Amino acid sequence: MRDTRLRRLRTLPLLGLLAALFLPLGVGLAPSAAASSAATPVRIMPLGDSITGSPGCWRAVLWNRLLEAGHTDIDFVGTLPEQGCGVEHDGDNEGHGGELVTNVADQDLLPARLAATRPDIVVMHFGTNDVWSSISPDRILAAYTELVTQMRASNPDMRILVAQLIPMNPGSCAACAQRVVDFNARIPGWAATTSTSRSPVTVVDQWTGFDTSTDTYDGVHPNAAGDEKIAARWFPALAALLEEGVPGGPGDPGDGDLTCTASFRAVSAWQGGYQAEVTVRNTSAAPVEGWRVTVEPADGARVAQVWNGTLTTAADGTATVTDAGWNGALAPGASAGFGLIATTPATSSAPAATVDCAATASS
């Protein structure tokens, strides 16, 4: 995570000499400069596939454009390192070549990456491989929703920039060009229903003005001209967020509340019962020592058995599951889970339950 603090270190000998010369005369360094150097960098995760990470040199262009505009307190973050673009920049990223956003959602891959990097802003161009694989827009957008939910579990104040994908016209996929058009048309409506005042989702049009014949080297991946265009589209949206400021990000000492979320997923069902699992995630900026989940099964079902937790059941059928001890302590962004078996009336519909989570402080 090369951040601009490395650049500032080179200026310290000169600043020290100036201070030595001027301080006896009653002249000090400007308070704004001191405050800027002490500011906590805003952590920005570039998220996507090979267009973002292999090598994804638009990130280098964007990084330097942000620095030139005065946005020096930034840190690009990700579990993947720089892959070489011939330009000095912070190369950390989350652009995994060949990945499908639907697989990342289905396999629950993002939470660990978020926990390792703790971004304040996510810049996402994701879905090209899904479109190429003829996965439906509905399924891709459902994966987007799952990823946004996980981002907000990591940081409730997450700012999210989502791209309308650059055009695609590979020789092996004649239908891909129109599939991108069809998918991009759905993104603004999805974003409008997903965005919140606390965690806004902003759509960035990467499609308009991008030409696969001049801006890619293979009909899919950007060349140098394409990198410039992608960076130019990201820049105003990202700069606007940086100028606005990012409140309540991970590690914000003003956010002392301990919070967690619980999510319910049916595993299998049969006449008279079902099996499900519940995932608990620490959504606060501090560790928690333990958790407690209430489970209210729908349609008269009752929780009969749990594992990886301790069960108590109220007269109305509401179940309370506390951690098993060994899985109670969770670092910020970390998760644990438990499984359950429920019995259902003969007329019960598909398995469903309302779940809620409460966290306890780490001692």
UniProtKB/TrEMBL annotation:
<dbReference type="InterPro" id="IPR008965">
    <property type="entry name" value="CBM2/CBM3_carb-bd_dom_sf"/>
</dbReference>
<protein>
    <submittedName>
        <fullName>Lysophospholipase L1-like esterase</fullName>
    </submittedName>
</protein>
<dbReference type="InterPro" id="IPR012291">
    <property type="entry name" value="CBM2_carb-bd_dom_sf"/>
</dbReference>
<feature type="domain" description="CBM2">
    <location>
        <begin position="253"/>
        <end position="360"/>
    </location>
</feature>
<dbReference type="InterPro" id="IPR036514">
    <property type="entry name" value="SGNH_hydro_sf"/>
</dbReference>
<keyword id="KW-0624">Polysaccharide degradation</keyword>
<dbReference type="GO" id="GO:0030247">
    <property type="term" value="F:polysaccharide binding"/>
</dbReference>
<dbReference type="Pfam" id="PF13472">
    <property type="entry name" value="Lipase_GDSL_2"/>
</dbReference>
<dbReference type="GO" id="GO:0004622">
    <property type="term" value="F:phosphatidylcholine lysophospholipase activity"/>
</dbReference>
<dbReference type="InterPro" id="IPR051532">
    <property type="entry name" value="Ester_Hydrolysis_Enzymes"/>
</dbReference>
<dbReference type="Pfam" id="PF00553">
    <property type="entry name" value="CBM_2"/>
</dbReference>
<dbReference type="GO" id="GO:0004553">
    <property type="term" value="F:hydrolase activity, hydrolyzing O-glycosyl compounds"/>
</dbReference>
<keyword id="KW-0119">Carbohydrate metabolism</keyword>
<keyword id="KW-0732">Signal</keyword>
<dbReference type="GO" id="GO:0000272">
    <property type="term" value="P:polysaccharide catabolic process"/>
</dbReference>
<dbReference type="InterPro" id="IPR013830">
    <property type="entry name" value="SGNH_hydro"/>
</dbReference>
<dbReference type="InterPro" id="IPR001919">
    <property type="entry name" value="CBD2"/>
</dbReference>
